[in-house]
């Protein structure tokens, strides 16, 4: 065969080979989010990034928002259609996400890898459009929103500072903020708000206390002793006035009556608990048992379960296997679903919120 004809044949073969391999290469290099439907009790599993941590649900639109640590971005997931609607990069390591269901805005906090700076980002829950950004104090942060006062709190356990952002929105939709700071304890991290009572709750991870602050006067109303190392998130049931405190090294869930500022229950849970969901269709409380102190990734000692607790009696009901290192937990009572971010499995698991869970 003439040399020029051989080159043509070789080029043709390479073209055919490239056409055949192109779909595979595209999947490897540009892997899209994958959502797989399941059955019972696991309804589905979402793979949209690495190391999902914070998770929040807009109970009016049913959108689910997930903060991924590395690389740092937030995902807006539509569970009804089973599709990721948007993905937005934020900072260098997203650590928490919350949603304001009154205006469908999503708030996320992130920290720089150096640990020298932090940031707060507000996004449109439907489109993922960035609406507002602000610098925050560095550290292992917590995030809470007062939907009535349109106030956002960001804690810094490293500096002992809580950044306060009082938000206003112009007729054109532009967000501006009046910022201030609170000094509460030495290592504030877990924070939560009861907007009906106008109370800010701050958990200090070294003093093992929860401080109750009047939002309007900034006056300290009470300091409550809890088990060792209260961690973010601190969940508040505004209807019942209860405050749920996940205590990591104390390995228990402490329940505070927000009207009396007294601990009314101490429930033992799995080692190094982290996330919690309390507003559920079954009235149950679900606590994620991460199983480690987040000092290493893919720890062989990572937990694999969530703990179910009766929301009335606070009786321990049992545990459910969900994957390695469960972290954030959120619920959608209308859809009867629980969402769990499973860090070491790089997955978000959708679970049926049913009284028939195989615990």
Question: What would your notes on this structure say?
Answer:
- By secondary structure, the protein is mainly β.
- Among the domains are: 1-31; 48-183, YVTN repeat-like/Quinoprotein amine dehydrogenase (Methylamine Dehydrogenase, Chain H).
- The protein contains one helix and 29 strands.
- The protein has one helix at 3-29; strands at 34-37, 42-47, 52-57, 64-68, 73-78, 83-89, 93-100, 105-111, 118-124, 130-136, 141-146, 151-156, 161-169, 175-183, 188-194, 199-204, 209-214, 220-225, 230-237, 242-247, 252-257, 262-268, 273-277, 284-289, 305-310, 316-321, 326-332, 337-342, 347-352.
- Strand 12 and strand 13 (161-169) form a beta hairpin.
Which keywords apply here?
disordered N terminus, 29 strands, mainly beta, 52% strand, four-stranded antiparallel β-sheet, 359 residues, single chain, 1 helix, Methylamine Dehydrogenase, Chain H
List the helices and strands and how they pair.
Elements: H1 3-29, E1 34-37, E2 42-47, E3 52-57, E4 64-68, E5 73-78, E6 83-89, E7 93-100, E8 105-111, E9 118-124, E10 130-136, E11 141-146, E12 151-156, E13 161-169, E14 175-183, E15 188-194, E16 199-204, E17 209-214, E18 220-225, E19 230-237, E20 242-247, E21 252-257, E22 262-268, E23 273-277, E24 284-289, E25 305-310, E26 316-321, E27 326-332, E28 337-342, E29 347-352
Antiparallel strand pairs: 1-2, 2-29, 3-4, 4-5, 5-6, 7-8, 8-9, 9-10, 11-12, 12-13, 13-14, 15-16, 16-17, 17-18, 19-20, 20-21, 21-22, 23-24, 24-25, 25-26, 27-28, 28-29
């Amino acid at each position: 065969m003439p040399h020029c004809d051989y080159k043509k044949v070789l080029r043709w073969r390479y073209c055919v080979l490239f056409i055949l391999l192109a779909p595979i290469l595209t999947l490897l290099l540009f892997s899209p989010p994958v959502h797989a439907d399941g059955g019972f009790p696991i309804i589905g599993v979402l793979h949209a990034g690495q190391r999902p941590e914070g998770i929040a649900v807009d109970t009016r639109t049913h959108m689910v928002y997930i903060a991924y640590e590395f690389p740092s971005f937030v995902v807006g997931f539509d569970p009804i259609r089973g599709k990721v609607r948007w993905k937005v990069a934020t900072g260098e390591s997203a650590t928490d996400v919350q949603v304001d269901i009154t205006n469908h805005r999503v708030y996320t906090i992130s920290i720089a890898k150096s640990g020298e700076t932090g940031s707060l980002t507000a996004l449109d829950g439907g489109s993922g459009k960035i609406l507002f950004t602000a610098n925050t104090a560095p550290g292992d942060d917590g995030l809470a929103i007062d939907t009535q006062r349109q106030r956002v709190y960001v804690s810094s356990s490293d500096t002992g500072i809580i950044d306060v952002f009082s938000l206003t929105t112009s007729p054109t939709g532009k967000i501006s903020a009046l910022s201030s700071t609170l000094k509460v304890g030495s290592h504030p991290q877990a924070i939560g708000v009861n907007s009906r009572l106008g109370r800010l709750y701050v958990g200090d991870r070294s003093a093992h206390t929860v401080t109750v602050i009047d939002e309007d006067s900034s006056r300290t109303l009470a300091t409550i002793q809890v088990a060792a190392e209260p961690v973010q998130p601190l969940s508040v049931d505004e209807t019942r006035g209860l405050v749920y405190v996940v205590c990591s090294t104390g390995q228990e869930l402490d329940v505070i009556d927000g009207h009396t500022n007294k601990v009314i229950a101490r429930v033992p849970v799995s080692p190094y608990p982290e996330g919690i969901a309390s507003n559920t269709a079954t009235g149950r409380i679900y606590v994620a048992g991460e199983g480690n102190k987040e000092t290493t990734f893919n720890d062989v000692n990572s937990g694999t379960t969530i703990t179910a607790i009766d929301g009335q009696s606070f009786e321990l009901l049992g545990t459910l296997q969900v994957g390695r290192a469960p972290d954030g937990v959120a619920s959608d009572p209308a859809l009867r679903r629980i969402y769990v971010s499973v860090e070491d499995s790089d997955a978000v698991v959708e679970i049926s919120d049913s009284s028939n869970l195989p615990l």
